[in-house]
Amino acid sequence: MVQLRKVIHGKLDPSDRSDLVGRLLDLFLITLIAINVAAVILETVESIETRYHTVFWVIEIISVAVFTLEYAARVWTSPENPEFQNSKNPRLAYITSPLALIDLVAILPFYLGFIVDMDLRFLRVLRLLRILKLTRYSSAMSMLLDVFREEANAFFAGFFILIVLLVIAASGAYLVEHEVQPGKFGSIPAAMWWAMATLTTVGYGDVTPITPAGKIFGSLVGVVGIGIAALPAGILASGMADLLRRRRAELIKELRIALEDGVIDPAEERELEEIRRHLGLSKRIAEEIRDDVQRSHSGGLTGQCPHCGRNLG
Amino acid sequence: MVQLRKVIHGKLDPSDRSDLVGRLLDLFLITLIAINVAAVILETVESIETRYHTVFWVIEIISVAVFTLEYAARVWTSPENPEFQNSKNPRLAYITSPLALIDLVAILPFYLGFIVDMDLRFLRVLRLLRILKLTRYSSAMSMLLDVFREEANAFFAGFFILIVLLVIAASGAYLVEHEVQPGKFGSIPAAMWWAMATLTTVGYGDVTPITPAGKIFGSLVGVVGIGIAALPAGILASGMADLLRRRRAELIKELRIALEDGVIDPAEERELEEIRRHLGLSKRIAEEIRDDVQRSHSGGLTGQCPHCGRNLG
Amino acid sequence: MVQLRKVIHGKLDPSDRSDLVGRLLDLFLITLIAINVAAVILETVESIETRYHTVFWVIEIISVAVFTLEYAARVWTSPENPEFQNSKNPRLAYITSPLALIDLVAILPFYLGFIVDMDLRFLRVLRLLRILKLTRYSSAMSMLLDVFREEANAFFAGFFILIVLLVIAASGAYLVEHEVQPGKFGSIPAAMWWAMATLTTVGYGDVTPITPAGKIFGSLVGVVGIGIAALPAGILASGMADLLRRRRAELIKELRIALEDGVIDPAEERELEEIRRHLGLSKRIAEEIRDDVQRSHSGGLTGQCPHCGRNLG
Amino acid sequence: MVQLRKVIHGKLDPSDRSDLVGRLLDLFLITLIAINVAAVILETVESIETRYHTVFWVIEIISVAVFTLEYAARVWTSPENPEFQNSKNPRLAYITSPLALIDLVAILPFYLGFIVDMDLRFLRVLRLLRILKLTRYSSAMSMLLDVFREEANAFFAGFFILIVLLVIAASGAYLVEHEVQPGKFGSIPAAMWWAMATLTTVGYGDVTPITPAGKIFGSLVGVVGIGIAALPAGILASGMADLLRRRRAELIKELRIALEDGVIDPAEERELEEIRRHLGLSKRIAEEIRDDVQRSHSGGLTGQCPHCGRNLG
After folding, report:
1. Nearest-CB residue to C306 (from B230, B234, B307)
2. For residue A304, what are the β-bridge partners?
3. Residue B304's beta-bridge partner residues?
4. Chain A closest CA to C137's CA: distance in Å?
5. Do A14 and A46 fall within a single domain?
6. Would residue B212 count as lying in a domain?
7. Partner residue opposite D233 with nearest CB, options B164, B174, B230
8. Which label site among B85, B239, C77, C178 has the fewest CB atoms less than 10 Å from its CB?
C-alpha cells in the first residue's frame, strides 16, 4: 500500500519531470483546467449557453469527477511529500496548505449546488477559481510569490499610503467641485470614484473636475498618482533583484561544496542541475557562476603582493 | 510622578510590543481613528448625514476627548522618549516633531470651530487629517519614508523636470490647436489641463488634439509621459535596493560583533531580534544572513590560508 | 570564389565598422527599409494611394529586387559568419536564424501575391514586417533582447498572472453589473473588455461600472492593475541591473588577462575596444573599470600582505 | 582685468556656495526666470493680456536686458571655468556648451522679433525655453542627466522598439476595424492615433475598437503597452542603481587615500565634503561609508585562520 502510495505521489508531484507518465498527467490536468475556465466564461454568453447547454453539463460532470479523484489522491499521498513530513499531522498540514485549499475550492461549488440553494450564477462563477489550480505547474510563479511574501510588509505600507491619498484626494475634490457638479462630486464617497481613477492613472474620463481650482488640484493628484504607481514597481524591482542575488549566492555555496574535492561527478551534476532549476536560474547564468567559482577555487585571489612577489592566492 | 510617567510612556510607545496593555491601547486608538475617518466620509453623504446626525456628533465628542487626552499624555511623557532625551528641551522637540504635529492638527478643527467662524464643511474635512495619526503604527512606513527622505533631491529634480515638460507640452499644443479648439486650447493654462492628463498617462479624454499636427505632437507628449512616469519608479527602486543593502550590512555588522566571543546568548538574541525588526528585514532573510556570518566566522571561508596553505573551509 | 565570398561577407556584416563600403551599404539598406515602411503606411491613405500609385509600385519593385539580392548574398556568405561555423550545416543554421527568417518574410508577400490569390490589403500590411529588418543594425537591441530571453520565465509567469486576474476581474464585474448594464457587462467575455482596459490602466472610459458595488470592485481592479503594470518593470529592471553587473565582470576578467604581462599593447587595445562595444558598455564606464583593475593589479589593494606585513598599497 | 574676470566668474558660478553675493545673484536670476515663464504663460490668456499688456512689456524688456548682460558676462569669464580651460579655444567651447546655448536661445526671440517678421505668437512661446536656464541651478539634475547620457543607447533602442510596435499595432487595428469604423481606422496613420494612446496607456477613449476581433487585438496592444511603459523604468532604475554604486566606490576610493596617513585633517575634511556634495550622496550615506572604511582600514579582513589561529587581517 505504501509502495503504491509512493508511486502515485511520484506521478502527481510535478517537480520530478523525468517521469513520462507524470508529465502526461500534468498535461492532462492543465488542459482540463483550461477547458473548464473557457467553459465557464463562454457559458455566460446567452447565445452560446442555450446552444451548447448539454456540452457544458458534460464537461462539468467529467471535470468534477477528475478533480475530486485528484484531490483524494493528493490528500492520500501527502505523507510522501517531503514538505509535510516534518509536521505532526502531515495530512492536516497538507489540507490546510494553499494549493490544497485551491483544489478544494475548485470542487466545492458543484457539491454546494446540491446542498445549498444559492444563486446559480454566483456558483457558476465560483468555478472560475479553478484557474488558480494552474499555479502548481509554473516554476517561475514560486519566485514571484516569494517576492510578494518577502516584501509583504512594504506592500501593506504602500496600500495604506494609497488609502490615505485616496481619502485626501477625494476630500479635496469634494470641497472644490461639489457645488458645480453635485452629482459627481456631491459627497466624499462619490468623489472617491474620480480619485481612484486618477490615482491609478486609469483615468476613465466619465468624471473630471471643471473648475480651475479643481483642475489644478486634479493635476496634483495625477502627479501623486504616478508616484503611487511607482511604489509597487520599486518594491517589486528591489525585491526581485535581492532574491536573484541570494539565489546566486546559494548556487555558489553549493558549487563550492561540490568542488571541495576538486571534481564534480555525475551525481553532483544532477544535484546541481536540480538546484539550478529549483532556484529558477537560467542555464547561461549558471554556467557563468560555475566558471567563476572554478577559477577562484583553482587560484584564489588574483594579483601579487608587490613586496614579496608571491601570489596572494 | 516620574515613575508614573515612565509607565504611561511605556504604554503609549508602540515599539515595545510585549506589553499587552500597550497593545490594547494601540488597537483602541487605531479603531477610533478608523471610525473617525469613516464618519467624516459618510457625513458628506446628505441622506446619511440627516439620519445619523446625532451619532456623528457623539462620535466626534468622544474622539476629540480621547485624542486630546492622548495628546496631553504624549507631551507629558515625552522626556521618557529616547529620541528626544538629547535635546535641550525635550518637550519642545517633541511638540515640533511630525507625529506630534499630526496629533495636534487632529484635534484643532474641533476647537477652532468655537473660536473662528469658518466654513463648517472645510473644518469637517480637515478632521480627515486624523488618518495620518495611523502612520505611527506602521513599521514598514518608516522604511518608505526613509527612502523618500534619502532621495528627496532626486525627487525634486524629477518634479522640476515635470514642470518643464508640462510647460513645453502645453505650449506646443496651444500653438497647434488654439485656432481649431479655442475653448480647450485657447491659452497655455487651458492647454495645461490636457498636457497634465497626458504626461501622467491618466488620459481622461475630455480634451484631445484634433489636427494631424496636434495628434503627432500629442503622441510625442504621451511617449515622454511614460518616461516621466518611469522617473519616480526608478528613483524609488534604486533607493530601496540601496536601503536594503545597507540594512543587511548593518545586521551583518551587529552579528559579527555578537559572534566575537563565539556564541550568541539569549540577551544578544533578543537584541538581534529587535534590530531585525527595526531594520524591517524578514525572519527568512535574517536567517540566511546569520548562516553566512556564522559560517565565515567559524572558518567556512573558501580559498586557502596564505600562511599555512591549507583550505580555509 | 571563397575569397570573393569573404569580401562580400565583410561588407554585409555590420559589426565590422571600419569598412567604409560596408557602412555605406548599411546606410543604404536602412534608408530603403525606412522608405518601404513609410510607403506601406501612406498607401493606406486613399487620397495618397490614388495619386502616387505608380511611385509606390516602383518603390516596391526596387525594394524587393534589392532585398532578394541581399537575402541571396547573406545566405551564400553565411559560412563565413563565425556564429554559424560550428554547425554541421552552416547555411541551414543561418536560414533558420531569426534575422534570416525576418529577411525571408520581408520578401515573401511580393512573391506570394503571384502564387496565391490573397486579400491584397493583408499582403500589403505584411510588408510592414520589413521594419524588423532594422533589428540587425542596433547594437543596444541585443542587450534588451538578451534581457527578454534571460527573464523569459518570469515574463511568462507575469503573463499567466495577468490572465488569472483578467478572468477574476471580468467575472466580478459581470456578477455585479450585468443586470444594470446588460449590453456592456452582459457576459464575462463582454466584461473582459472593461477588465483589460482597467488592469492595463489604459482606461478608455467607453465602459465603466455604474453601481456602487461595481465602482468599489472597479477601484480594487485598478489598484491591482498598477501592481500588474509594475511586474514587467520589476522584472526588466532587475534583469537589466543583473546583465550590466555580469557584463562588467566579463570586461574585468578580460582586462585582468590582458594585464597579466603588465602592459596593454595596441592589439589588445583593439580587442578590448571590440569587447566593450560588444558588451554595450559606455566608454566612460569602461575607463572607470580599467582604472580600478590597473590599480588593483599594480598593487593598489588595500589591507596588508599576510606574508610580510606591509601595506599592499 | 583678469582679476576682475576671476571675481565675476566666482559670483556667476553656482557651485561655490559659500559666497553670499553669488548666492543672492543666483536667487535673483532664478526668480527672474520664474517670473518670465509665468508671464509668457499668462500672456496667452486674452483677458489677462489685454489688461496687463504694459506690465508684460516691461517685464520682457528688463528680463532681456538682464539675460543679455548675464550671457555676455558668462562668455567673457568662461576662460576662468575649469571645465573649459583645457580646450584650445575656451570661449568657443563654452559658447557651444548646452547651458550657453540655452542662454542664447533665451534672448534670441526678442532680437529675432526685430530682424525677422515671424508669427508673434510663436516667438512669444519660444521665450518659454528660458525655463531651461533653471537646469544650471539644480545639482540633482546632473545625476539624472548623467543617467540619460549613460544609458542613451538603451533609450534609443527602447524608442526604436516603440516605433516598431506602433507600426504593428496600428496596422493590425487598421486591418480589423477599417470597414466598421472608416473614419477612425480608415488608414494606418489614422489608426496610429489609437495605437499611440493605447501603447502609452494614456487611453483617451475617443477612438476604440468595436469588433470582437478588434477588442481582442486591442487588449493585446494594451498588455504590450504596459511592457513598453516598463522599459524606460527598467533602464532608469538599473542606470541609477549603477550610478549610485559607482559614486559610492569613488567616495570610498577618496576616503581610503585620505586615510592612508591614518587621520583626516580639516583640509581633507573640506575636500571630502566637496566630493560628497558633488557626487550627490546624502550626509547619512557618507557617514556609513566612512565608518566602514575606517573600520576596515584599522583591521583588514575579519575572522581567523582555523588552522594557525592568526588573524587574516
Report:
1. B307
2. A311
3. B311
4. 25
5. yes
6. yes
7. B230
8. B85
- C-interface mutation test, from A35, A196, A200, A224, most C Cβ less than 10 A away: A200
Please count the residues of chain B.
313
Give the closest-approach CA distance of C286 to chain A in angstroms.
20
Domain of residue B47, residue span: 2-137
Residues C37 and C122 in one domain: yes
Q: Do C189 and A45 count as a contact with CB atoms less than 8 A apart?
A: yes
List all chains that touch chain C, counting a touch as 3 or more CB pairs closer than 8 Å: A, B, D
In a domain, C168, yes or no: yes
Are D31 and D84 in the same domain? yes
Looking at the fold, whether A17 and A59 belong to one and the same domain comes out as yes
* Residue A205 with chain D: CB contacts under 8 Å: 204-205
Domain total for chain C?
3
Chains touching D by CB (3 or more pairs below 8 Å)? A, B, C
- In chain B, the N- to C-terminal Cα span, in Å, equals 59
Question: A145-161: buried (b, 16+ CB within 10 Å) or exposed (e) per residue?
Answer: ebbeebbebbbebbebb
Tell me the per-residue pLDDT of A201-223, one tens digit each, with 9 for 90 and over: 888 989 999 999 999 999 888 88
Same domain, C164 and C119: no
Contacts with B230 from chain C: Cβ below 8 Å: 233
Q: What residues of D are in contact with residue A202 (Cβ under 8 Å)?
A: 203
Q: Can you tell me the distance from the alpha carbon of B19 to that of B24, in angstroms, rounded to the nearest whole number?
A: 9
Residue at which a domain ends, from B201, B229, B257: B229
More confidently predicted of D212 and D16: D212
Q: To the nearest 10°, the Cα dihedral for A47, A52, A57, A59?
A: -110
Regarding whether C266 and C221 lie in a shared domain, the answer is no
- Any domain includes C75: yes
Grid coordinates of C246:
555580469
User: Are residues D204 and A205, on separate chains, in Cβ contact within 8 Å?
Assistant: yes
Could you report the per-residue pLDDT of B164-174, keeping only the tens digit for each? 888 889 999 99
Identify whether residues D163 and D118 lie together within a single domain: no
Nearest residue on chain A to C230, alpha-carbon basis: A233
Inter-chain CB pairs, A–C, below 8 Å = 158
Selected residue of A43, A44, A308 to mutate for chain C interface (largest C Cβ count, 10 A):
A44
Give the model's pLDDT for residue A217. Answer: 93
Q: Could you tell me what percentage of chain A is helix, strand and coil, using 3-state DSSP and rounding each to the nearest 5?
A: 75, 0, 25
Return the beta strands (E) in C221-303 as ranges. none
Tell me how far apart the alpha carbons of residues D125 and D39 are, in angstroms, rounded to a whole number: 11
Report the CATH number at residue D48. 1.20.120.350
Q: Do A203 and C198 touch (CB under 8 A)?
A: no
Write down the ipTM of this complex.
Answer: 0.77
Which H/E stretch holds residue D228? helix D212-259
**Interface touch A164/B131, C-beta < 8 Å:** yes
CA distance A109 to chain C (A): 15
Task: Give the count of beta carbons closer than 10 Å to the beta carbon of residue C55.
Answer: 13
My answer on whether C88 and C121 are in the same domain is yes
Q: Which of B143, B238, B303 sits opposite A154 (nearest CB)?
A: B143
Amino acid at A272: L
Single residue among C178, C194, C229 that ends a domain in this structure: C229
- Using CA atoms of C283, C288, C292, C293 in order, give the dihedral in degrees to the nearest 10: -10
CA distance B298 to chain A (A): 16
Tens of each residue's pLDDT in chain C, 313 residues: 777 777 777 666 655 556 677 788 888 888 998 898 899 888 888 888 888 889 988 998 999 999 999 898 888 888 877 777 777 787 888 888 888 888 888 888 888 777 777 677 777 778 888 888 887 777 666 666 777 777 777 777 777 788 888 888 999 999 899 889 988 898 888 999 999 999 888 889 899 999 999 999 998 888 887 777 667 666 766 676 677 777 777 777 777 777 766 666 777 777 777 777 666 666 666 777 777 666 666 554 444 455 555 544 4
CATH number at residue D208: 1.10.287.70
* Closest residue in C to D235 (Cα–Cα): C237
d(CA D304, CA D205): 68
Q: Establish if D313 belongs to a structural domain.
A: no
